[in-house]
Automatic annotation (TrEMBL):
This is F-box domain-containing protein. InterPro entries: F-box-like_dom_sf, F-box_dom, F-box_plant, LRR_At1g61320_AtMIF1, LRR_dom_sf. Residues 1-27 are annotated as: Disordered. Residues 70-117 form the F-box domain. Residues 1-13 have a biased composition (Basic residues). It comes from Triticum turgidum subsp. durum. SUPFAM superfamilies: F-box domain, RNI-like.
Amino acid sequence: MKNKSGGHRRNKSARNEAAAGNKNGRRRRNVSVPGVCLLCKVHPQKVYYLFLLLNAMQKSARNGAAADNGDRLSNLPNDLLLNILERVDTLDAIRTCILSKQMLNLPTMLSQFFLSAGSVPGHHDKACVFSRGEVLRTNNAVARVTDSILCTRNPKIAITKLKIRFVLMPHVSLTIGRSVARAMATQKVGAAEFEIITEKAYTDCSPADLLQFANQLNNFVGAFPDAFAGLRRLWLRNMRFGELDITNILSTCKLLASLRLTECDSGIDSVLQVEHAQLVELEVDYGEFSRVELTCLPKLQRVRYNNWYSYEDPLYFGFVPQLSKLSLTKTGVRWEKTLELSQLLANVPNISNLHLDFESEKIWVLPECPKLLTPVLGKLQHVNLDNLPEGCDLAWTMFILEAAPTLEELCVAVRDHWCIMLTDEEARKKNGYCEKADVNWKPYAPDFKHKNLAKLTIYGFQPNDNFKRYIRCVVEHAVNITEISLYDRKVCGSCGDLDPEIKVKVCPSRYPQTAEEMKQITEGLGLASRAVIHFRS
């Protein structure tokens, strides 16, 4: 399909022209939660130390410990053991309890459950991907354990958290749906969450696969509406729904507070209309929607949209009186529309936190005059401009400062993120990637003063004229700024695996390493203000 400018719509093969490891291709950004434990994305260090503690106690138990003391694991009080067991994956907790007769009844006393089927190849980071056989075995175990625990646990103990991550398969869905629905009908269940993945990664899916997965989910929801009626969070992947399917799912999930759709849509150029009385958070990753219409969401506070494929405004905001945080991520190409925030946010006057990620490519936001922007950015307090391409003049970002009088913190991150960038020149031209070009901006009031900005943070700082000029410009206008934090480029583990032909294109960082270099840069800036410059590691 050609767009109005004559360019071709990027289909699935174009978006994933070369998978990870192809030096001329673009690696898809990982959008899934890695690993075995669902808690890892929230408390990775805490969970890591808990695993160490459990492993140490398990070794003690296996070795028999001292004959007169028994094993230290079972001698711990139940409340402490439960506190530990509820912080790790429930399957690991059960394996631990098997080590001691005194602990065999603890799984029935748990109030928090985290059951995960692991990762399907193609879904996650390489380090966290299991073989398909391992995933399916774990998936079956998750279903059996869910059914067993929810049937035998003490009904007087409320379930405060229930997170189940599983591969969508008919027999597994049947077992999980039945046991969760029964638990919600007979016990008090607090925060319940389903994270549903598919047997195939999106890059391996045909249109028929996407339709089949959506049909399986519809059957699942229809068979166990009580299980979905009590959900607070739902994350779906790799599904192509019918026109009203998502609306019907939302009407079934009456208590839903968070919805995430990854590679989901209702067909190419479909429109997603969202209405829900309780939804607080909405995340959309990829998919082929031409627009997402947030029609009536009285409690919605946070929206994140990652890489839309529309030539018009990707979002329409209807009745969203509490929306305060907006995050947009986009790999911009030549023929796609440059967003005008004054139009996009016309019905959203309460945005306080704005995050824009440009993925080291085209700047897809148009600098506008403060008369147009201030009505929609008048309550903005925090702005994060992420992955700006290196070499781009940063002065254009000042239009936000000029239009947002209440802004308190501005964070700018600059880097060429090579491992997610399309590097082959012919492929770049074919898919509409732009050569880097500066965005023109001139202040509408050259002498404007900003009185609320207190903190400027820059990632990817280099001691060149571009950055120095930008810092001076911000300080000149932000008269009450007190802190300027400068960091080196953000580190990405995958960038270390780049092909040697790409590595030679990467400009080495000149971030100051010694106290003398930092002193020279600070003095060279010549700031006649109370702002304190910090070089952060």
